[in-house]
Design brief:
The strands form 6 sheets. The protein has an 8-stranded mixed beta sheet, with helices on both faces. A 6-stranded parallel beta sheet has the order 6-5-4-2-3-7. Strands 16, 17, 19, 20 and 21 form a 5-stranded antiparallel beta sheet that branches. It has 16 helices and 26 strands. Helices cover 30% and strands 24% of the residues. Among the domains are: 2-158, ANL, N-terminal domain (Rossmann fold, 3-Layer(aba) Sandwich), CATH 3.40.50.12780; 386-487, ANL, C-terminal domain (GMP Synthetase, Chain A, domain 3). Helix 1 (7-23) crosses helix 2 (40-50), helix 3 packs across helix 4 (87-93) and helix 6 packs across helix 7. By secondary structure, it is α/β, with parallel strands linked by helices.
Length: 494
């Protein structure tokens, strides 16, 4: 299911929501929490909040009622907009927000005002004195989500930091004549990447096509139908597109695409190469996090530096540090750190967590990598995911990249499991494409492929077939969730 939201509709819907907040008595620096799918109301609530000086916090509709209540309370929400499909989670947090500022979309929830009341508000163009901002929460893969707080909200007129960043990226990498064409939203808007680019596209005058749930063939249909010029995607979506039969992929005209931004998770080399071969040099990759930082790389640069996530964006510095906190030379692997001045932040209400990943004026998101002589960054893995087997560091991401070369592998997760002799042993958890299990011995074929492509210590000792693997909807692998059952009752070094 997809929705076309024209640019004028974005403007009028945002104005109505801002006026609804005014009518509810919310001040210009109020906090607005939303629990919505990829619907028009999400973008109206976002635009109305940040263009009227409010703080906007999107919540994942996959969160439990307990998590939703925690974030609504932690972000100090003054208003709460929810999807009727999330009624249980909404009711768990409802008492934290005044009834006059609770709104429900797509149905009814006791104690919530129907969205139709927002639609009855006037829709005069917004002329706000202040820009608002987003406060996003980390994915919570290692505990409760943490609010990434940028400190003082910006003084002066809109757009927000998100909108300015998205607009600047699209202006830099999208040809001028295509900037006000259709932008396809194919991933959940409550994440930073899709929201940033959607807002940037809208600021440039584009209409937005919203996919509520990703389907590979439907994605191609929408690109052809609306002559989509830009979109944001994650690597798991690339894999699903490439696994479509060639006849299906060739059925649709994707020539309108001028910019496919991607990030949020590592992408296998062969996957990216195949996407560039298919769509042309329109892929643009960025690396960063909710906290900030950031490198970027075009298709042309990537083909010259395969596997790199690029060089730092303007104002950002990348530093590779050893375990002792000292800088390492080009080519040496170490912790990836960024300068705080480019994107200062704190984890709301958690000073210990804030300081945990900092050395002086640098911060890390826990990744390990290296830079080459030209300053291009290559990521190895996350420090918490490295497998230490017989004193040797093994990076799961490198093995997973090789596994995904096999056409019958739909998804995979490599973890270290307890081993009395080596400390940890490599185990591959693999999800096969439908019907692949009947085609020979997939476990043996996977091992054989790994032996041909990897060093001996990287080859999985065991391949375990799984029906599914734990991932967030942006493609981030929940490795800890997959790994922890193997370590029950035992201490892991990390």
């Amino acid at each position: 299911m997809a929705t076309l939201l024209t640019n004028p509709e974005i403007l009028t819907g945002g104005a109505r929501f801002a006026n609804a907040l005014d009518s509810a008595g919310l001040g210009r620096r109020a906090s607005v929490a939303v629990l919505l799918h990829n619907t028009s109301e999400f973008l109206w609530a976002y635009r109305g909040s940040v263009w009227s000086g409010r703080r906007f916090t999107p919540l994942s509709w996959r969160w439990s009622p307990e998590e939703v209540r925690y974030v609504v309370e932690d972000c100090e929400a003054d208003a709460f907009v929810v999807d009727a499909r999330c009624a249980e989670a909404a009711l768990a947090a409802a008492s934290l927000v005044p009834e006059s500022a609770r709104f429900c979309v797509g149905g009814e929830i006791p104690g919530f005002r129907p969205w139709q009341e927002v639609e009855a508000e006037p829709c005069e163009p917004l002329a706000p004195p202040l820009a608002g901002e987003c406060m996003l929460y980390t994915s919570g893969t290692t505990g409760r989500p943490k609010g990434v707080q940028r400190g003082q909200l910006p003084e002066g007129p809109p757009p927000s930091l998100f909108g300015r960043a998205g607009m600047a990226m699209l202006q830099a990498f999208l040809p001028e004549g295509d900037r006000d064409s259709a932008h396809l939203v194919a991933t959940p808007l409550y994440h930073a990447g899709p929201c940033t680019y959607a807002d940037g596209a809208a600021l440039l005058g584009a209409d937005l096509v919203l996919m509520e749930h990703f389907d590979a063939e439907e994605f191609l249909k929408l690109v052809e139908q609306y002559r989509v010029t830009s979109t944001f995607m994650v690597p798991t979506q690339f894999v699903r597109l490439l696994h479509l039969p060639a006849a299906v992929r060739e059925r649709y005209d994707t020539s309108s695409l001028r910019l496919v931004c991607h990030g949020a998770a590592p992408v296998a080399l062969e996957t990216k190469r195949q996407m560039i071969d298919w769509l042309g040099p329109v892929l643009f990759e960025f690396y960063g996090g909710t906290e900030g930082g950031g490198c970027m790389i075009s298709s042309q640069e990537w083909l010259a530096h395969p596997g790199s996530v690029g060089r730092p964006r303007p104002g950002v510095e990348v530093h590779i540090l050893g375990d002792d906190g000292e800088p390492l030379p080009a080519g040496r692997e170490g912790g990836v750190f960024f300068n705080l001045e480019a994107s200062p932040f704190d984890y709301k209400g958690d000073p210990d967590k804030t300081q945990e990943g900092r050395i002086g004026n640098l911060f890390t998101m826990g990744d390990i990598g290296r830079v080459d002589d030209e300053g291009y960054l290559y990521l190895c893995d996350r420090s918490a995911d490295v497998i230490l087997s017989g004193g040797v560091n093994i990076y799961p991401a490198q093995i997973e990249s090789v596994l995904l070369e096999l056409p019958f592998v739909a998804d995979c997760c490599v973890v270290g499991v307890p081993d009395d002799e080596w400390g940890e042993a490599v185990r591959a958890l693999v999800q096969l494409e439908p019907g692949a299990s009947a085609a020979g011995d997939p476990e043996a074929r996977i091992i054989e492929h790994c032996r041909a492509r990897l060093s001996g210590h990287q080859v999985p000792r065991v391949v375990e077939l799984r029906d599914s693997l734990p991932r967030t909807e942006t493609g981030k692998l929940l490795r800890r969730q997959a790994r922890d059952p193997f370590w029950e009752g035992r201490d892991r070094r990390i």
